[in-house]
Amino acid sequence: MSTQISRNTLADGREILFFHDTDSPVAPLAEDQRSAEPRPSGGQLRFDLLTGEWVAVATHRQSRTHLPVAAECPLCPSAPGRPTEIPAADYEVVVFENRFPSLGPGIGAVSADPSHNFAEVAAESALTAPAYGRCEVVVFSSEHNGSFADLDTARARTVIDAWANRTRELASCAGIEQVFVFENRGEEIGVTINHPHGQIYAYPYVTPHTKVTSARAVQHRRETGRALMADILAFERRSGERMVLESAHFSAFVPYAARWPVEVHIVPHRQVLSIDELDEAEREDLARIYSETLRRIDGLYSTPTPYIAAWHQAPVNCEDRAAEWLHLEITSPRRAENKLKFLAGSEAAMGAFVGDVSAEETAARLRNVQPRSADSMPAAEPTNEDGHR
Ligand SMILES: [Zn+2]
């Protein structure tokens, strides 16, 4: 049986979807009792002539909710006299359109590069587009306190099904070029609401990072006939030194050239391009290995570690489908109990990273750490120098 979905509309017209765990009863939908405030009009995209990248400008976001106490949390269930963003007395996993989106609410196409004819870009209007796209909030639980790592496997699985549903649906919208599923966790990296949640951005262009990695994957396949990530997986599994966890369908490892003090990539063994292509067995397996990785990252220090968990999915209209490979990158700037890595001149201005710890050291710490929870998976066996277990 698969996750069930109920759809509703909030008072101001935003879409909301309820994803139900397979074994729990589906509650009837309630109406949003709030008066309909007008939605902020969309922001702007401005084209940076120097880098060839679009920059979203969303000035209305300055007034958004900032670190509310639990009694004022917009992601908690609604209670009599206290309507929240979610018109339900309880829920499992909920996705709704962000009230203060960087992209949207309009969806449409924008030019990949409006500067190709420079004679025509003298006008600002040629370098400006509506900030088309969609920003969604994914609420992992009705519990205000906790995090993804605290979800049981069934609930983690429901979140994965929600990600898959949103990826497929948003990728099918005209003009959407990339769907980015992610979670920011921790006030240290700018989280404005502590209630466990993630986000989804559907962009009308391919992001700068994905342009680079996608071009490399295409070139690698042209030269070798193989998918680049297949070769990276083989390289990491053969070495074993940086491996953290291995399951039937996924490997979790610290990449050879890790940039961050804590960095783990989780890669499916089978080539899929996006979360919605993962099959039943892979989603079950992912629910376990992802949660376990987060519990190990949280076990490194006495307090929860801030992180960004970023799903790298293939662009919607990618050049070579056989070159692309879905994966998750979890990164944290935390380099000691009370120290964060800040991006200074070399990283921030040049994009040239200087790492503080070796990938092998980080992997060993994550293999040996006591995960912050009882039901944990065994770590991958470190290999000796001959590559034997
Ligand atoms: Zn809350």
UniProtKB/TrEMBL annotation:
It comes from the Bacteria. Its EC number is 2.7.7.12. One of its GO terms (cellular component) is cytoplasm. Residues 45-206 form the Galactose-1-phosphate uridyl transferase N-terminal domain. The keyword Lyase does not apply. Zn(2+) binds at residues 73, 76, 144, 195. Pathway: Carbohydrate metabolism; galactose metabolism. Belongs to the galactose-1-phosphate uridylyltransferase type 1 family. This is Galactose-1-phosphate uridylyltransferase. The lineage of its organism: Bacteria, Bacillati, Actinomycetota, Actinomycetes, Micrococcales.
